Description:
The chain is α+β, with helices and mostly antiparallel strands. Helix content is 22%, strand content 38%. It has one domain (10-130): Roll (Nuclear Transport Factor 2, Chain: A), CATH 3.10.450.50. Helix 1 (10-23) runs antiparallel to helix 2. The longest helix has 14 residues, at 10-23. The radius of gyration is 15 Å and the shape is globular.
Amino acid sequence: MRRTPIFETALAAQEAFYSALARGDLEALMSVWADEDEAVCVHPSGTRTIGVDAIRASFEEIFSGGAVRVDTTSLLAYEDDNLAVHSLIEHVAVQGRMGEQVVNVVATNVYVRSSLGWSMLLHHASPADGEAEGAARPQAEERPTGPLH
Length: 149
């Protein structure tokens, strides 16, 4: 699989990733990922998924339930010529027993630059503690079930 878009900045790659999540667009989402066996994705409360084929399969399963609405805030970024690390808070809209809820997730995205532009090498997302952005997490009995992303 080879990416068609060329992302001039790590931020452009990140925006494309979250836009693809919001549309449920698997091809656009995978175009952001580095075509590397070492690519890694950890979904909230999930296991480590290694390699673009496994990452594709994990997002294909997630998108079988529809698009994923994610708003992001609190971006902290480190970047040099060929590496960018973004730490941010994701606010993920999920359906639960009590209707739509927003769950806060702490995410780290790592991007690498090659001659083909910037691409994602790692996405690691973990449920946030109640302190994230001052919002409380749902109590255990209220937590939505199923994948966040």
